[in-house]
Amino acid sequence: MSNKYIEILKASTKLGLTSFGGPSAHIGYFHEEYVNKRKWLDDKLYADIVALCQFLPGPASSQVGISIGLLRGGIAGGIISFLGFTLPSVLILMLFAAFVTTTGSFDSGWIQGLKIVAVAVVAHALLGMQKNLAPDRIRITIAIVCAILTLLIPTAVGQIGVILVAGLFGFLYYRKETIEPASKMELSFGKKTGIVSWVLFFGLLVLLPIFKPFVQSIYYSIFDTYYRVGSIVFGGGHVVLPMLQREVDVAPDIFLAGYGAAQAVPGPLFTIAGFLGQVTAGIPGALLAVFAMFLPSFLLVIGMLPFWSIIRSKKGIQAALKGVNAAVVGILFAALYDPVFTSAVKEPIDFVIVLITGTLLIVYKWAPIKVVIVSAILGAIVHSF
């Protein structure tokens, strides 16, 4: 394995082991690791990728990770990035499913500490992105308005609408200004690969349900169910759960135990597919469910990136992206409050831990992994009494 792939594996696995707190926090962890620390891409390109992945169905944070892997090391890099970020939580959930009982509690203090540190991580990412993506009064105003609208219309459709309106405003307001050159987006694959990817995406989406009545196999059924859910869900893991509960034949108490476990582990919430697949059909079922759940994300990102790199260099698109990037800052700002702050800070002592971890991360520039450990220890201490 070349040094480039080892680098991608190290970075993504570290994120897969430490990225607690849901998709908004993941965006913060990614920003710290890939933009601030490793400098694999700049703020503008990172925000473009985040904005693009917000438009696509599927787990946005996983798609951002896959996109960065694709940019860094081609299709192999995208696969390695995905495996590093996703496998830790998949393996933990598979192990939990193997020993699942009808009850399970995930309210321990150290888990509360892991939720709390996400507040500091998202705040840190927000500060860094604001400096570069909303540096003037107009774009700060766009960000604030988008944050307000995101909180008032807390749906996936509302979020996409906010991004579209911000892009339209950016186009109208900035289209006559001199636009900076687009950030470099070098890909090892081109438009032909992108078109093949789109054909595969829609082909599987249409054909799998058509042939399902003729194939009496639990594995075919798992692939069809998880592929379909991964293809059509907007808004992240919390939206996918009700869909899965309807589609998957698992007892409600076991499903809820898996939901609790999925929230307690790092990485994307979509890895609950590993838990449910394990319960349904053992290790093969778990691996197939995870593969099917994330395959649409791969196909969509590979299909979109070759065209995105051409589209985004146009003057009008660059103007629109100024508005869109400010909107991304606003959406992250809204997410800092809900769900990150509201789910983590239950009492004053929790906010004390936020202040401590935020100071270590932002002022003293501690590595996120150290801050995560400190927060877990503090959470365990204060919530054990």
UniProtKB/TrEMBL annotation:
One cellular component (GO) term of this entry: plasma membrane
Bilayer topology annotation: Multi-pass membrane protein
Chief location: membrane
Keywords: Cell membrane, Membrane, Transmembrane, Transmembrane helix
Transmembrane stretches, start-end: 75-98, 110-129, 141-174, 194-214, 286-307, 319-337
MF-aspect GO terms: chromate transmembrane transporter activity
DNA damage found in the keyword field: no
InterPro entries hit by this protein: Chr_Tranpt_l_chain, Chromate_transpt
Domain of life: Bacteria
Localization in the cell: Cell membrane
Keyword Zinc-finger appears in the UniProt entry: no
Annotated family: Belongs to the chromate ion transporter (CHR) (TC 2.A.51) family.
Protein name as catalogued: Chromate transporter
